[in-house]
Amino acid sequence: MSWKIIERKRTLLAGESGPGRGKSGGRLSCCLVYPNRYHSAMSNLGFQAVHAMVNAHPEVSCDRAYLPDRDELEELQRTRGTLLSLESQRPLSSFDLIAFSISFESDYLNLPAIFRLAGIEPYAAKRSRLQPLVLAGGAALFLNPEPVAPFLDLVCIGEAEPTLPPLLELLKQGAPSREELLLEAAQLPGIYVPSLYQPEYDGPCQLALRPAPGAPAKVRRVWDPDPESRPTVTEIHTDATEFSGMHLVEISRGCPRACRFCAAGFIYLPYRTRSPELVRSEVLKGVAQGRKVGLVAAAVSDYAGIGDLCCDIVAAGGKFSVSSFRIDHLDGRMIEALKASGQKSVALAPEGGSQRLRDLVKKGINEEQILAACDMLVSHDILNLKLYFIIGLPTETGEDLDELVALVKKIRERVLAAAKDNRRLGEIQLSVNPFIPKPFTPFQWCAMEPVKSLEKKWKFLQKELGRLANLKLQMESPREAFQQALLSRGDRRLAELLVAADRLGNWKEALREQEFDAEALVNREIALEELLPWDFIDGGDAGRLQREYRKALGE
């Protein structure tokens, strides 16, 4: 055991404050693991909420763990040590339950490394009964858990509020054998037990996922029917996060807009909002602590009474920021309050560069509304705009990119004119992201555009916009987007690839060693009648996705 590592963890703990810092004891010991660095883990509101929820159970104790940073990793390798939890500095292998909270598919890559550093066999079928049970949940698992299913004993398909309490009760009570325990768990709503399902394949296609006797044919995605039961807020404050000095408060869950490319509009259905009384109580707690309040939702401006709420924060002497705006639903009082909070930058998401593409994705906005929103913001002295666009959408052409360039130039002219009048600098940051077909969206059957084609489009945008003053361009790497698409729509055969990538330390070498045809999964359009790896999840109205797909792309 390295004292350097223990001292590092004690330093992190000393920098934390808040009511959600855990407890010791309990009949069931759990370690909640975020498969990325501490900074990312503690910036994730879902991770914090689940940690507090598990510790609220009277007979369960819950530590935290995360992917070691470079210094800790070097120390572990030098001392041949094992991965320790944050609170009690216990080896992960000593817990009854290891629970992964996974929001992003890219973090699937870190699971084999965490198992290796913890001295735990990655494949569930090969683990001894003396090793912990392994559970996973989070948005990435709502969509498609199959790429990491061979690593997991249990998966929560849906939100933690309804799935975790009955599962923790079952695990606390135990069963005569692990097999019986898992079969009992499979009867709980929203609990998927991968070992009870046998996949069948034919080339790039999955033919079936056959349940064992006693296992449900489909696993129903569950959602919290009572958003008032428990607020979702920052439980542990620390400066070592993306939101240092902020108190985050979730004001709604899901999105009523259902853009055809976006999973949030489908996997969090139905759309639910928290009451103004609950939200106001929580935001004023943050103000009382001297913290800036962060209002969290898929579309903050859709929240009823958002203007009143923002004005209440300012009237109480607080400041706030928002996670997102809807271009067609800006509240004047909210903008005034943002200005009073000293907000100098706002993010807007036109997504499609042309009206044809905005209609294709069902964005529900036009150029006039986009420009009007920009005019409203710059007229309130908010002169720094971040614009999100997607390239590589289905049917995109060169003409669509030309319209994107023209729209950005129009917005830039407005920002520069307002900045000149106010004698201040204004700036546009253009964030371009490749389209990734996501499960449980109408575009889940679409192909992702090849990397070389996306890189060519990026060069075009750089040529047209890259030299303009007061305009910065950034783009998610097409190769990383390709990797994310593979992990989003892949099946269980990806687990071997993930283990190989960890062993070799190189993703490309793993693809070559495993002779894995990634393009066959990513760059092809999937037939509507083909079985998808995530089709075992009952996510609601499956016919709706097909209808929206047909509406978008035509019969």
UniProtKB/TrEMBL annotation:
The Radical SAM core domain is annotated at 241-479
Q: What is the top-level taxon of the source organism?
A: Bacteria
Q: Which SUPFAM superfamilies match?
A: Radical SAM enzymes
Q: What's the name of the protein? A: Radical SAM protein
Please report the organism this UniProt entry assigns to the protein.
Answer: Geomonas propionica
